[in-house]
Amino acid sequence: MSDPGLVPYDPERRMLIDGTLVEAASGKTFDNINPATEEVLGDVADADAEDMRRAIAAARRAFDETSWKTDHAFRARCLIQLQDAIQGELEQFRSELVAEVGTPVMVTSIAQLEAPLADAFAWPAKHIEEFQWERELPKAAPFGVPSRRFVWKEALGVVGSIVPWNYPFEVTANKLAQVLATGNTTVLKPAPDTPWNATRLGRLILERTDIPAGVVNVVTSSDHLVGEELTLDPRVDMISFTGSTVTGKRIMEKGAATLKRVFLELGGKSAMIVLDDADFASVVPSGMSVCMHAGQGCSMQTRMLLPRSRYEEGVELITAAMKQVPYGDPTDPNNMMGPVISAKQRARIEGYIQKGVDEGAKLVVGGGRPAHLPKGWFIEPTLFVDVDNSMTIAREEIFGPVLTVIPYDDDEDAIRIANDSEYGLSGGIFSASNERAMAMARRLRVGSLGVNGGVWYSADSPYGGYKASGVGRQNGIEGFETYLETKAVAIIDN
Ligand code: NAD
């Protein structure tokens, strides 16, 4: 049953470049496809390198020639205007996201739309006022020269904001708000699979805010290499990227020639550690949350670590839970899982499932395409047990509704397994003792951690990865400073 709250929407097909909504210079477009039906929803401008260079030029000019970078109060006002404008079209955003992302309508009430909208703009807008943009150091006489010394925080310049398809609005909101709050200008490059939420934002920025022309530009393209222009162009100072680790490495490499600053939020293979004293009946079934939005989230806890002493009991509980995951039509408000984004992603996930079987893991739930959903890129909620942490399905990011269960001997062994990963993004620990769980939390090499169900996500909380899960932080004070330069100034004290 389709959610009666979903509304008709009027997608924006054009890009925002230099304060105007434009087609691609070539006139080309590409199709936007609904992953739940495989039907074409409509189209959008298909930019080439020339369009991208025009957008970069506009962002550069807006940074260099306007007072955007220095007018704090104006920026705060613009951010609130933007939040209000989005709020005014909340239902159009929701319906459009469900259609182009294939995200369940249920997920739009949480991380896909409403949670980031609640404070992604408001928090940085407020932080503009609270932030210490300038401070004075103690008086000193370096090299015998009496001096008054100051530290000024300034905007970095032009930021290339590159966004993936899994949580496109959430990632865009968290990038854009911080990039703008700190006085930068930007070219926003959405993933080819999910362009309309970004073009809608572009239209709102133009029509409903005072954000000056060129401060935000939105470039849609079917060609990833158009995004790569951002990493190569010397007029771009920084890349803020969320997506795969492979692409993150390439961005770092390509950006090295012009010494780009980079913020990279990449993949994960996070562990959910259930300690032997935990309340298994309430904790273990929650592991099925890896199926939320078909597992297309970087901080999903895709490795469940169960103590050998209670292993059979745990496997029984998670097997039952995985069999009950409500999934299917993303417009049905009861479903927590829709399709994956594309045929290519589904094939990739199926390849991992086959590898799991080939390498000797025990497949106990799912593993195939649901027979009752012949259209759309659906895949069954899938559970592997008796997994060894050296297997491919325990090491690589699958980005699908696949949970692996790994037995461990004792607490030391659980910490060893959890940390034995290329990644270090997130994780969870469950125990009857907060003290025991918090002691373990200090030993995990990850950027965020939920203990006994605590939730760390919000605009004031820094988010990012250790190891191959990324470089830098988004959100919070740390994220705010990611987009700033630091200038030390001394004036003679006479
Ligand atoms: P991707 O990392 O290749 O794409 C993300 C964004 O980067 C898109 O906007 C894309 O157009 C752009 N991009 C791609 N190549 C680029 C380049 N050379 N220079 C500049 N921009 C470039 O992700 P994908 O190929 O769509 O997905 C593949 C895998 O990535 C997934 O299976 C998943 O494992 C992972 N992924 C992770 C996240 C995350 O949040 N960590 C998000 C999406 C995908």
Question: What can you tell me about this protein's structure?
Answer:
The protein has a seven-stranded mixed sheet with strand order 14-15-16-13-12-18-19, with helices on both faces. The protein is built from 17 helices and 22 strands. The chain folds into two domains: 15-266 and 470-491, Aldehyde Dehydrogenase, Chain A, domain 1; 271-458, Aldehyde Dehydrogenase, Chain A, domain 2 (3-Layer(aba) Sandwich), CATH 3.40.309.10. The mean pLDDT is 98. With 494 residues, the chain is of the alpha/beta class. The protein is globular and about 75 Å long. It is 35% helix and 20% strand. The longest helix has 17 residues, at 49-65. It binds nicotinamide-adenine-dinucleotide. Residues 162-166, 189, 191-192, 224, 227-228, 231, 242-244, 247, 250-251, 266-267, 298, 345, 348, 397, 399 line the site of nicotinamide-adenine-dinucleotide.
